[in-house]
Structures are given as C-alpha cells and as structure tokens.
Amino acid sequence: MTEPKPIDTWLTDMDGVLVHEERAIPGAAEFIQTLQESGRRFLVLTNNSIFTPRDLRARLLAAGIDVPEEAIWTSALATAQFLDLQRPGGSAFAIGEAGLTTALHEVGYVLTERSPDYVVLGETRNLSFEAITVGIRLIDNGSRFIATNPDPTGPSTQGPFPATGSVAALITKATGVDPYFIGKPNPLMMRSALNRIEAHSETTVMIGDRMDTDVISGLEAGLRTVLVLTGSTKQHQVERFPYRATRIVDSVADLIDLVEAFNPVVPAV
User: Fold this and answer.
1) 195 and 175 in one domain?
2) Active site residue: 13, 151, 209, 214, which one?
3) Same domain for 30 and 98?
4) Within a domain: residue 2?
5) DSSP secondary-structure letter at 251?
6) Beta bridge mates, 92
7) How many domains does the chain have?
8) pTM here?
9) What's the half-sphere exposure (Cβ side, CA atoms, 13 Å) at 40?
C-alpha cells in the first residue's frame, strides 16, 4: 500500500469536538493553539447555519477557544457559495437566521418571496409556521428546494430540538419535493472547505464526533479521518457502521502531539 503523506492541513467539527453545550471540551483550546503555533492551515466546520462566523468566534472565545473568524466554515457559507456558482446573482426565500441570510446577501443574492429561484432552509430556533407555509407554496410553484444540512435534531441545554432535517421532512411531505442538502455528510462541504484553504485531500485530516456525518463525508472526499469519543458516536457504536475512521481517539487532546510532530502522519486503527 502507498505510504500516507504527512498532514499539512486540518479540518475539525465544532460541536462535540471542541465544545459541548458551549463549554470547551478539555484539551480543545490547547489543540487550536497548537495548530496556530504550528503554522498549519485549518478550518473549524459546522453544520450549524444559525450563526455567522463572527458570532461563532465570539461564542468559542467565551468558552476559552481562540479561533479566527476566517478559520470558521459553516453550512450556510457553503450553501451560499454553491448557489453563487450555480446561479450567480439569483434570488432566494430563506427560512433561517442571520448566519444564512448574511451568507446569501454576501454573495449577492436577493431575498424575496416573489418567485425566487430557490427556497433555502437553514437551522432556526424560532420556527415560523407562516414562513414554512410560504416556502411550501413557492416550491409548489417551481422554486428549487435547498437545505443547509440534513441533521434531524440539534443539541441544547434543555435537550434535543428539531433541526433542519426535521423541518425539511415536513416540507417534503407537503410538496413531494426532496431538498438538496449542502452540509455534512455531503462531501461538497468538505470540498468547499479544502478549496477555502487551498488544501489537498491527500494531506488533510477531518476530525469529527459523528460517524454518520463527519467521518463519512471526510471519507467520501478522500480525507483521512479521526473520530473523537467526546460527542455523538460512542465506542460501542463504531462497529455498526460499514466504514471506519482512520483513527479513533478519546478527544482532541490526544492529537496535540501529532500536530507538534515535524511530519505528522495519522496511523490507521
């Protein structure tokens, strides 16, 4: 087998890897600091489309993790980039919050209810029956259906709440139209992140806490993957999946020495 190439760039999920319920996971701040001091390029990825990168930087900083704004890549940004490539200067009806609407505005999209090119669904903590109804009617009239990510639930201090995937299922049930999901596990999210930092899949590692989103999307994009056990997927669940992470560790704290290595290579499980 071909020897794996040294790691030049790192992609890492946010929730379950760096933070849990807005509290830093032990070792996360040190891991990010080590990445910065090493001079290696990295991106923090999240399917969360509620917040802008500036908002997320502030939230991470409050948890003691210093991530530059430009090092945060959200499913909202990936969605806006995709739409800009598909139909530059287009229009959309957005069901979501500031992270999504800001991203669409920044690529030059017009947000409108008048025969938009797309209905774009993102995550929101303030579900509007009126907005969902408008979206259903627009899709029925021919607008294309895009969703930032397929996550059925999201975490909160009170427990899980219905996320983008659940609301998308409601709209699909009403219209018979399936959305195109941009975020993980679509490898498009990974490809857009690689392009963002001019990285190559052969020399990049994806770190995540979920086998069904982080690991599979990294795998399908040709990256080596590291599963951390601080989030959704637990050790006893790993063997249920028909694919494997390159490496499994307890937390990102176990990767600090690897980042510090001169020519780091992620060994297989």
Assistant:
1) no
2) 13
3) no
4) no
5) -
6) 111, 118
7) 2
8) 0.93
9) 26
Which run of H or E residues covers position 90?
none
Q: What is the pLDDT of residues 241-255, one digit of tens each?
A: 999 999 999 999 999
Per the CB < 8 A criterion, the answer to whether 246 and 12 are in contact is: no
User: What per-residue confidence (pLDDT) applies to 122?
Assistant: 97
Query: What is d(CA 139, CA 167) in angstroms, rounded to the nearest whole number?
Result: 14
Query: Is 212 annotated in the active site?
Result: no
Does 268 map to a domain? no
Tell me: the pLDDT tens digits for 14-57? 999 999 878 999 999 999 999 999 999 999 999 999 999 999 99
Would residue 13 show up in a list of annotated catalytic residues for this protein? Answer: yes
Kind of pairing between the strands at 153-154 and 118-121: unpaired
CB 46 within 8 A of CB 15: yes
In this structure, the answer to whether residues 86 and 161 fall within a common structural domain is: yes
- Active-site residue identified among 8, 15, 117, 250: 15
- Indicate if 107 and 147 belong to the same structural domain: yes
Helices (H), 141-240: 164-175, 187-196, 216-220
The answer on 102 and 30 residing in a single domain is: no
pLDDT tens for 194-217 read 999 999 999 999 999 999 999 999
How would you label 101-121 residue by residue, b for 16+ Cβ within 10 Å and e otherwise?
A: bbbbeebebeeeeeebbbbbb
Inside any domain, residue 175 = yes
Query: Which residues constitute the domain of residue 171?
Result: 80-181
Quickly count helices (H) and strands (E) in the chain: 9, 15
Place of tokens 């997320």: 56
